[in-house]
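We were asked to recover a plausible sequence for a given structure. The inputs and outputs are reproduced exactly as logged, with field labels preserved.

PROBLEM: sequence recovery
POSITIONS: 178
GIVEN STRUCTURE:
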């Protein structure tokens, strides 16, 4: 869906940081996008078009999922719901634990912010192994809402995160694929 021009601009803007946070990792630094308001706006337009008319609410995963997720929700005139790391939300909330390569983690979201049957876009900046996004989809499903779409700025294809999300039967979109 993204134009070749947008992809090119993003590839020229996102910085590749070798060996960060550990040796062997090629970190994709998206921060330079925020120095270019027009480019940021193009990204939001592209991500919003993926979801226009297909969702009722956007859920963003802490913390970088908020950077684009809120703007997508505003562009689509739908609510935005936070998905946070454990221990950050006052009650009532529900949580979902998930495994990482080096341990486990948990995410939470407030109860009552989603309605039964709502179609949900889950947004994060980057899809790697898909563990956090899968946990977010489970949280949404526990509340009777439907994870209908997943969107990302970047998909690290070699880590097969998209494969992990297939069980939800949702559309998956990323602007950049590495």
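RECOVERED SEQUENCE:
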């Amino acid at each position: 869906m993204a134009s070749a021009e947008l992809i090119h601009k993003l590839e020229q803007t996102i910085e590749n940081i070798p060996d960060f946070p550990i040796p062997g990792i090629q970190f994709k630094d998206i921060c330079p996008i925020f120095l270019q308001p027009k480019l940021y706006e193009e990204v939001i337009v592209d991500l919003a078009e993926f979801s226009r008319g297909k969702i009722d609410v956007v859920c963003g995963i802490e913390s970088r999922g908020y950077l684009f997720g809120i703007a997508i929700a505003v562009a689509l005139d739908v609510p935005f719901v936070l998905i946070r790391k454990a221990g950050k939300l006052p009650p009532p909330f529900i949580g979902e634990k998930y495994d990482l390569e080096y341990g486990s983690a948990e995410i939470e979201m407030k109860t009552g912010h989603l309605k039964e049957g709502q179609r949900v876009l889950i947004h994060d900046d980057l899809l790697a192994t898909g563990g956090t996004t899968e946990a977010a989809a489970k949280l949404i499903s526990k509340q009777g809402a439907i994870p209908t779409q997943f969107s990302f700025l970047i998909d690290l294809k070699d880590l097969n995160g998209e494969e992990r999300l297939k069980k939800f039967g949702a559309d998956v979109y990323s602007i950049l694929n590495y």
